[in-house]
Design goal:
By secondary structure, this protein is of the alpha+beta class. 20% of the residues lie in helices and 30% in strands. The protein is built from two helices and six strands, in the order E-H-H-E-E-E-E-E. The protein has helices at 12-19, 23-38, and strands at 7-11, 58-62, 65-72, 77-85, 98-103, 109-111. It has a six-stranded mixed β-sheet. Strand 2 and strand 3 (65-72) form a beta hairpin. The chain is globular. Residues 94-117 have low confidence and may be disordered.
């Protein structure tokens, strides 16, 4: 029996970063997040030497970019913090309060009470 995917939460920083990319990169990011939500066992290596407010932060590679996120195996959730180019991931701002959304069984984003930045027109 396959476990259900982890719930996914995004921060305002992640939403702003996501909107900066063209549709093809957004699609790659979307696929990687869906993969991570269904394969959370592969997320177990927090970044080292991070400030206390970013303790436990992990990364997922998407081409030349990194999705920075927290994984909570107890709550079965991923919190997407930011998307950074490889060189810029060291200069991270303060975390923001996340906006909630869930992954459905079809592996598409379902935003609760928020505009879907993946499908919203600019």
């Amino acid at each position: 029996m396959t476990a259900s995917p982890f719930n996914v939460t995004v921060t305002g920083t992640f939403e702003r970063d996501f909107k900066k990319f063209d549709h093809s990169v957004q699609t790659q990011i979307h696929k990687k997040i869906n993969w991570a939500a269904t394969h959370p066992e592969s997320l177990h290596q927090p970044l080292q030497h991070m400030p206390k407010n970013l303790a436990g932060l992990q990364k997922l590679r998407v081409g030349d970019y990194r999705i920075l996120l927290w994984v909570n195996h107890m709550d079965r959730s991923l919190t997407l913090y930011s998307i950074r180019g490889r060189a810029s991931q060291r200069d991270l701002p303060e975390p923001l309060i996340p906006n909630q959304f869930l992954l459905s069984a079809e592996m598409t984003f379902k935003w609760s009470g928020q505009r879907d930045p993946i499908h919203a027109s600019s």
